[in-house]
UniProtKB/TrEMBL annotation:
It comes from Chlorogloeopsis fritschii PCC 6912. The gene is pstA. Gene3D superfamilies: MetI-like (1.10.3720.10). InterPro entries: MetI-like, MetI-like_sf, Phosphate_PstA. One of its GO terms (molecular function) is phosphate transmembrane transporter activity. This is Phosphate transport system permease protein PstA. NCBIfam families: 3a0107s02c.
Amino acid sequence: MTSANIHKIRNIINRNKRAEFIFSIIGLLAMLIGIIALMVLVVDLISDGLPRLDWQFFTSFPSRKPQQAGIFSAWVGSILVMLVTAAVAIPVGVASGIYLEEYAKKNWLSDLIEINVTNLAGVPSIIYGLLALGLFVYGLKLGQSIVTAGLTLALLVLPVVIVATREALRAVPSSIREAAYACGASKWQMIWDHVLRYSTGTILTGIIVALARAIGETAPLVTIGALTFIAFLPDPPIQAQFPYISFAWLLAPFTVLPIQMFDWVSRPQEEFQVNAAAAGVVLIGLTLVMNAVAIYFRYRLRKNIKW
C-alpha cells in the first residue's frame, strides 16, 4: 500500500471520527434541552403549588372558595381508578403477550394481530373515550362510574403492556427454553418457571410506563362523563358487616386529579391556579410512588434470579 493510500485512509478515519463527535454533541445538547425544560417546568410547578400543600388541602372536598378547596375526592378517585386499571390491564396484557409470543402460530393472522396491537398503542386517547362511551356507558349500562373509567384506561394502556411483554419474552435466550425441554418440562412449565422469571423485570418496566400514562389521562375520562365537582366519597371496599367486602364503589361517580386540575385552571381566580399547581405536585408524587413500588418489585425479582 502506497503512502498516498495510507494518507487517504487516515483522512477518511479522521473525518468519520469528527462526524461521530459532532453527532454525539448534538445528541447530548438535544437531551439536555429536554431535561432542562422539564426541570424548569417541574420546579416552577413545585414553587407555585408547594405553599398550598397542607393537611387541609388533602382532606377537603372541592369548593367554590379556593381557600377551602381540596383534592380529597380527586386523589381517592385516582387511586381507585388505577386499581381497576391495573387489575384489568396487567393480567390481560401479560396473558395476551404470552399467547401471541409463545402459543400463536406464526402466520398472516398473527402478523395482522401484531400490526394492529402496535398501531393501537399510538391511537389518540379520545378515541378510547368514545369507544368506552358507546360500549361501557350505553352498551353495558355501567354508567359514569369508577369501573367504566378503569376499563377505559385499561383499554388505553393494554397495547403497551402487550408489546412490552412480547419484547421481554423475545429477549430470553432460546437456550433457556431448550434446557427446560431437555429436563422434561412441559411448555407451560417452561414459560412459568423459566421464561417469565427472566423476563419479569422487563415486563414490569412496560407496566410502569403504561400506568404512568394512564394516571395522567384526561380526555377519555371527560368523554365518559367524569365529574369536575364531587363532594362525597364512594362506599369503602371493606366494611364491618358480613361479607366484609363491598363492590358498590365500582359503580360510584368519580373524579380524578387531572380532571380536578382541568376544572381549576379554567377558572379566572389566581388562587385556583395555585390549587391546580398543588394538585399537579400531588399527581407527580403519586406517579413517582407507583414507579418506586414497581421498581422495588422489579429489583427484588431480578435479585432472586440466578444466572
